[in-house]
Design brief:
The complex is a heterotrimer of chains A (about 260), B (about 260) and C (about 350). With about 260 residues, chain A is mainly α. Helix content of chain A is about 75%, strand content about 0%. Chain A is built from eleven helices and no strands. In chain A, helix 3 crosses helix 8. Chain B contains 13 helices and no strands. In chain B, helix 4 packs parallel to helix 7, helix 5 packs across helix 7 and helix 8 runs antiparallel to helix 9. Chain C is an alpha+beta fold and about 350 residues long. The chains are: A mainly alpha (about 260), B mainly alpha (about 260), C alpha+beta (about 350). Chains in contact: A-B, B-C. The interface between A and B is large, with 90 and 93 residues.
């Protein structure tokens, strides 16, 4: 069977590590490595208001970022499908950012925000509130997630024949009804698939909150990374990861079953 | 017909905003001063020579290229046969293959990074380092490649191989002479996306990087933590130009179509 | 009948999800074209693919010449096949498509070039050798597919509705080219279609299929003028089919009563009386007279009706006549120049010699 190597690979390097994370989340946080069997990591996380705040902040950032991305990417995908002049440029805008790593893109974005703010300051106008806060993190996610969402929606929109829209128009549907009853339903699988992808990405992102938040916006991944790299113990980081997974994965499953319909 | 009827203004603005951070980086890279500012105060290539004279950056670049090539090779080696079995044959456990294949794409990367770190440092005596990074990148590169390959393969009509067989080609020859050449655009697209994913990855690499052996993005990240001169911008500008060549090649062989329909990541 | 060349001996193939063929027996002599005619789902394509070897037969044997090819892999059956979607290799030029089979046979280069060029010339595409399939029109692609199938001089040619996705005019043109090439090269073939006119034009022999079985077999003219089964008569729409209620033998003839109450007297030939389940009233057997008040009502054989539809065929009118006293609509072929209008009152008369008993 030709799929077997992939199955074995994913089983060993995906399922086993996931299981190990779960195991590590139950280990004694005061001992180096994995040992003992205790719920203390979870009770620790769940009894501290601070951790709840971090978790809610993470989800808030992810949900708002995905929603904003969908809202902005759907018209882009539609434009790309229906008004394909300068198509290469429109595609380049989606793919070119992939050519540069996230570190550099965020770096560029920050310099851009600084330049704009300097310009606004020079004109005596208030600055954009986009330095080292949640709004800046959402903006960073938006710029980063946009291409994935747009490509995903474009893939499902390109299966919609333009004559279907024309047929709706000949049946007397106003533009708004066509958007609502024809175009959006056709986008739905793409939006759902794109949401799964971007939600996983946004809720698991370390770099964007860390850089755009300037160390002031702590999310679960930031928490996990700092815990693991600074402490040398895995327990509390693993517990945070499992909790994140328990919140994120049902949301994505729901979204993907909606996509299947 | 005017241009605005053929392309939406919204798209042009959005495209501009998406590309703008890249243009800013390019602008910053030629800034003669010590600070990363945009627009640049003048024109100088000193930061380019600084970037390419920096051994840490060069070592990181070489390591990133090696890792990306390795991860791409593994991704294709796993995804090409799997895509064939998913598209061409109906078999028991087909959905299991699909779920396992796509799983790593749907799980937050931080989790993959953490899982792999504990796996390699605690369960295996290997420790973090280059090999775990390659394996970790391939874990995500494989489903990316699989999506592109599947999109390509579903467009290749199975009747072509039947036609080849009626013309005297045994099944294996029919596959290698007919289907395989038609899979090339998909493989190029899949390979490019896996390569780019690995080359740009930060989230998995951060966990598995060992001191003294950083990938390029990780190296840039730690550099920017201490200094903000245009060296990183210069290095990135060089990579953008390098990346544009990729884009042109991908477009030329028709791989872009499948990259778009594959969803990518 | 000359010696059989292709023999299909009790071949059966069933798919788990339904469909397939049962117990098919067929044989054709060398140089003949057998047409498998039937609606979609009748099993004709399954049978063709079984002959090609693309689908293994569950039961039975397939003989080609003196070879038993039942278990021979597709690649070694020496059949040529033209597919409905043409199945040209999109990454190869017309030349390379046609050359593919010869390359598989390791034909030397010089001979290969000559033979490919000959084959392309045969389908009038010698100037298109360097084109890729996507640079050719549908009709041209289909001709490349034909050239590709015949260039290897296969023992048997198989056609799977090869013309069904082409425009009407090109379909007619290719049909006659195909017939001509088949005769010229003396090719033996099996041709699957659901189109009557294609079957008539191309077949030396027609097998009508329904639900995985052959319901009727014969020369095209016989099948079209004297169908013997209800399925064939209805599928080919050669006339009006009426259900039979009872059959009464009388003086070497048979009086047949139909469900609609119409009675026909047939000479006792052909099908056994017990087997008659329906009658086919061919459209050409119905004479239509203008309604004449003066004519004595109830004159033998003259039935009153009203024209309910008039369709223009290529060289004639096809009139539907609703009978006044019976729930029946009879079809009648009339000359194109005849003036018949919708709603006209008419009297019809049936030539009973032409009425066909159906199984």
């Amino acid at each position: 069977m030709l799929g077997l190597p992939l199955v074995l690979y994913a089983a060993v390097l995906f399922l086993v590590p996931l299981a190990i994370v779960i195991r590590a989340s139950l280990s004694d946080p005061n001992v180096f490595g994995i040992s003992g069997l205790t719920w203390v990591n979870y009770s620790n996380f769940l009894t501290h208001a601070y951790y709840w705040q971090v978790l809610l902040r993470t989800l808030l950032i992810a949900v708002v970022s995905v929603a904003a991305t969908a809202l902005l990417a759907v018209p882009y995908a539609y434009g790309l499908a229906r008004r394909p002049a300068l198509r290469q440029l429109q595609l380049l805008a989606l793919f070119a950012p992939l050519l540069v790593n996230q570190v550099v893109r965020i770096f560029g974005l920050q310099i851009l925000i600084n330049s704009v703010n300097r310009g606004l300051g020079g004109l005596g106008l208030p600055k954009l509130p986009l330095t080292y806060n949640i709004a800046a993190v959402v903006l960073g996610e938006l710029i980063f997630l946009f291409p994935y969402m747009a490509v995903s929606v474009f893939a499902s929109l390109s299966r919609l024949d333009v004559t279907v829209e024309e047929a709706a128009a000949t049946l007397g549907a106003p533009r708004r009804a066509i958007v609502w009853h024809v175009i959006l339903p056709a986008c739905r699988p793409g939006i759902a698939a794109g949401s799964v992808l971007t939600f996983a990405s946004a809720s698991g992102a370390y770099l964007v909150p860390q850089m755009m938040g300037g160390g002031k916006v702590t999310t679960v991944p930031v928490l996990i990374y700092n815990d693991v790299t600074q402490g040398g113990t895995f327990g509390s980081g693993a517990a945070a990861a499992v909790i994140l997974m328990l919140v994120v994965i049902p949301a994505m499953l729901y979204s993907s079953t909606r996509a299947a319909r | 017909m005017s241009l605005t009827r053929r392309v939406s203004i919204y798209n042009l603005v959005a495209a501009a905003i998406l590309i703008l951070p890249l243009l800013v980086v390019i602008g910053v890279s030629v800034n003669p001063g010590q600070y990363s500012v945009f627009p640049p105060d003048g024109f100088s290539l000193r930061w380019f020579s600084n970037a390419f004279g920096n051994h840490q950056f060069l070592d990181a670049l070489r390591l990133s290229l090696e890792i990306a090539l390795g991860a791409t090779a593994i991704s294709l080696a796993l995804a090409v046969p799997a895509s064939l079995s998913l598209v061409r044959w109906r078999f028991r456990g087909r959905s299991l293959v699909r779920v396992l294949a796509i799983g790593p794409l749907a799980v937050p990367e931080i989790l993959l990074g953490l899982g792999l770190l504990i796996f390699f440092t605690n369960a295996l005596p290997l420790g973090a380092g280059t090999v775990p990074i390659v394996l970790g990148h391939a874990l995500v590169g494989t489903p990316i490649a699989l999506q592109v390959l599947t999109a390509n393969l579903t467009q290749i009509d199975g009747v072509l191989e039947e036609a080849a067989q009626t013309l005297g080609a045994p099944p294996i020859t029919a596959f290698t002479k007919v289907t395989l050449p038609l899979m090339v655009p998909g493989m190029v697209g899949a390979g490019l996306l896996s390569f780019i994913f690995s080359f740009d990855n930060v989230n998995i690499s951060l966990f598995l990087t060992t001191p003294g052996e950083s990938t390029l993005p990780v190296q840039m990240y730690s550099y920017l933590n201490y200094r903000s001169d245009p060296t990183v911008a210069a290095m990135s500008t060089a990579l953008v130009l390098f990346g544009l060549v990729f884009f042109v090649v991908a477009n030329r062989v028709g791989a872009l179509r499948f990259m778009a329909s594959g969803g990518g990541r | 009948m000359s010696t059989p060349y292709l023999t299909i001996d009790r071949v059966g193939k069933r798919y788990p999800q339904g469909g397939g063929v049962d117990e098919i027996d067929l044989s054709i002599p060398r140089g003949a074209m057998l047409v498998l005619l039937g609606p979609s789902g009748s099993g004709k394509t399954t049978l063709l693919r079984t002959i090609a070897g693309l689908v293994p037969a569950d039961t039975g044997r397939i003989l080609l010449g003196d070879r038993d090819i039942t278990r021979v892999p597709v690649a070694r059956r020496r059949v040529g096949m033209v597919f409905q979607t043409w199945a040209l290799f999109p990454h190869m030029t017309a030349f390379d498509n046609v050359a593919f089979g010869l390359r598989m046979q390791k034909v030397p280069k010089a001979e290969l070039t000559t033979r490919v060029e000959e084959a392309l010339a045969l389908v009038h595409l010698e100037d298109f050798a360097a084109r890729l399939p996507r640079q050719l029109s549908g009709g041209q692609q289909q001709r490349v597919a034909l050239a590709r199938a015949i260039v290897t001089r296969p023992d048997l040619l198989l056609f799977d509705e090869p013309l069904s996705s082409l425009d009407h005019r090109i379909r007619l043109e290719l049909r006659s080219q195909l017939r001509q090439i088949q005769h010229q090269l003396g090719l033996t073939g099996v041709y699957v279609t659901h189109d009557h006119s294609e079957a008539l034009a191309l077949g030396d022999d027609i097998a009508v299929m329904d639900q995985g079985r052959i319901v009727e077999r014969g020369a095209p003219h016989a099948i079209f003028t004297r169908p013997t089964t209800r399925f064939t008569a209805e599928f080919l729409s050669t006339g009006t089919v009426l259900d039979v209620v009872s059959v009464h033998p009388r003086d070497g003839q048979a009086e047949v009563v139909t469900a609609a109450g119409l009675r026909f007297v047939l000479p006792r030939t052909g099908t056994d009386l017990e087997e008659i389940t329906a009658l086919s009233i061919p459209s050409r057997a119905i004479r239509v007279e203008p309604f004449d008040e003066a004519a004595p009502a109830g004159t033998a054989g003259l039935i009153e009706g009203e024209v309910s539809a008039v369709e223009y065929e290529q060289a004639s009118l096809l009139c539907s006549i609703r009978l006044v006293d019976h729930p029946v609509i009879l079809k009648s072929i009339q000359p194109l120049e005849r003036e018949i209008g919708l709603g006209d009152r008419v009297r019809v008369w049936c030539n009973e010699d032409q009425v066909l008993p159906l199984r």
